[in-house]
Amino acid sequence: MTAVEDVFHEGGPRSDKPLRRGTIAAVIANPFAGAYVEDIAPFMETLKPLGLSLAQQLLKTLDVPVSEIESYGKGAIVGANGELEHGALWHVPGGYAMRELLGWKSSDSSESGQPDNALAIVPSTKKVGGIGASLDVPLTHINAIYVRSHFDAVEVRIPDGPRADEIVVVLAMGTGARVHARVGGLAASDISQWDGLR
């Protein structure tokens, strides 16, 4: 399920260019539902193609160039027969898919001398919930986690999921700061460290 939202204002002056936020969610079977399994980490490798596919589909749905994506986040809702750790399996497949799609290559600068894009860790949230549970997915700046204007969240809900043996996995992207951001902190234009933080 995909959703796109254009935010022109939140009670203040109307912006000429709206903030566009989008989410994509997929419902998958939880292979570990109903039992404690010690070694679950290999499932992350299984989820990597899904992560890349969802990231590509979300970018296409947002209908903006890669260069306009300024924030991202991810999350998971685990059905009642699963555990919170099953949602953590989405960290690598979801996060790295978006980072690579948006230009991250390595921790070093690219050959062109310009820093890579999508340097910041992708924020995340997860919970165990029943059918129709909602999840507030955090958003932060793709290159510097300390850019306060981009601290945001989007709500996601699948009306008929997750069932007890399912997991809802979510990716989110946005094109900018909150429309009326004005509480100071590091500005996106002042990113200087290119270390994912500042």
Write the layout of secondary structure elements.
Blueprint: E1 2-7, E2 19-29, H1 43-62, E3 71-78, H2 84-88, H3 91-101, E4 124-128, E5 134-141, E6 152-157, E7 166-174
Parallel strand pairs: 3-4
Antiparallel strand pairs: 1-2, 2-7, 3-5, 3-7, 5-6
Helix pairs in contact: 1-3
Pfam families: AA_synth (PF06684)
Protein name: Amino acid synthesis family protein
Organism: Rhodococcus jostii
Care to give the gist of this entry?
This protein is of the alpha+beta class and 198 residues long. It has helices at residues 43-62, 84-88, 91-101, and strands at residues 2-7, 19-29, 71-78, 124-128, 134-141, 152-157, 166-174. The chain has three helices and seven strands, in the order E-E-H-E-H-H-E-E-E-E.
Structural commentary:
The protein has helices at 43-62, 84-88, 91-101, and strands at residues 2-7, 19-29, 71-78, 124-128, 134-141, 152-157, 166-174. Strands 1, 2, 3, 4, 5, 6 and 7 form a seven-stranded mixed sheet that branches. The protein has a single domain (2-10, 17-190), classed as 60s Ribosomal Protein L30, Chain: A. The chain is α+β, with helices and mostly antiparallel strands and 198 residues long. The model has no long low-confidence stretch (mean pLDDT 94). The protein contains three helices and seven strands; from the N terminus they run ββαβααββββ.
